[in-house]
Specification:
By secondary structure, the protein is α/β, with parallel strands linked by helices. The protein is built from six helices and twelve strands. A six-stranded mixed beta sheet has the order 7-8-9-10-11-12, with helices on one face. The chain has a three-stranded mixed beta sheet with strand order 1-3-2, covered by helices on one side. A hairpin with a 5-residue loop joins strand 8 and strand 9. It is elongated and about 75 Å long. It starts with a helix and ends with a strand.
Length: about 230
């Protein structure tokens, strides 16, 4: 009798666990108990919440557990101005999308306006006039994969604030021919994007001397010319 009761109790426990698991799966994946009712977008500045919501390709009422977070993340990051996105669920009914937008570090001059370029070389937005203080990028083919573009941006990113703030234009004829033109018209030739901090220190020390061009591509033997 005792064995029978124990066996029955164990069987009942297993049945309860199976029922509970089944109920949980049904509630999470098929019922309206955890259905999507709101999408909260944060971190956006220039891209609208409506545009982000349109890219999600999900409908109100869809169970939260059935929302593919990786797919939603990829869709949001396909927006040109978005650098990255984080997506997470808040039960019972909310999906959060946290957006990080691209920031311009330079711009390309085109007939249709100023194309803003971020630190990775992505042309992500066009405005009538470039923001004040943003340097111009002069390269033959401005893309994130272009070696000259990469070298120009790598050089600019390594400049100390004292020198970076004076730059009006960054030019790269090739990945080993990078130069910057200062606001007063003087030109600093860096060559490649290697050893930029040292080259910049040499350039800053030389800028007190009168010249039009400061070649610090070989920082041990800099050359000044008019």
């Amino acid at each position: 009798m005792i064995r029978w009761l124990r066996a029955w109790g164990l069987t009942a426990l297993v049945i309860l666990l199976v029922v509970a698991a089944g109920t949980g799966i049904w509630a999470g994946y098929f019922s309206q108990w955890f259905a999507l009712r709101s999408v909260v977008v944060s971190g956006n500045v220039t891209v609208s919440k409506e545009e982000v919501a349109r890219r999600l390709n999900i409908s109100a009422g869809e169970p939260l557990l059935r929302v593919d977070l990786d797919d939603v993340k990829a869709r949001v990051e396909s927006i040109r101005v978005v650098a990255s996105a984080e997506v997470f669920r808040e039960f019972p009914h909310t999906l959060h999308v946290v957006v990080v937008e691209r920031s311009p570090v330079t711009y390309i001059e085109r007939t249709d306006g100023a194309h803003l370029v971020d630190k990775t070389g992505v042309d992500f937005s066009t405005v009538p006039q470039p923001p004040e203080g943003l340097p111009k990028l002069a390269v033959a083919r401005a893309t994130a994969q272009d070696p000259a573009t990469k070298a120009a941006l790598a050089t600019f990113s390594q400049l100390p604030d004292e020198l970076r703030g004076q730059v009006a234009e960054i030019e790269a004829k090739s990945e080993i021919e990078v130069s910057v033109t200062l606001a007063d018209g003087r030109v600093v030739l860096f060559g490649s994007s290697e050893d930029v901090p040292r080259k910049a220190r040499v350039a800053l020390a030389l800028l007190s001397q009168q010249a039009k061009t400061y070649n610090v591509s070989s920082p041990n033997t800099p050359v000044l010319s008019d």
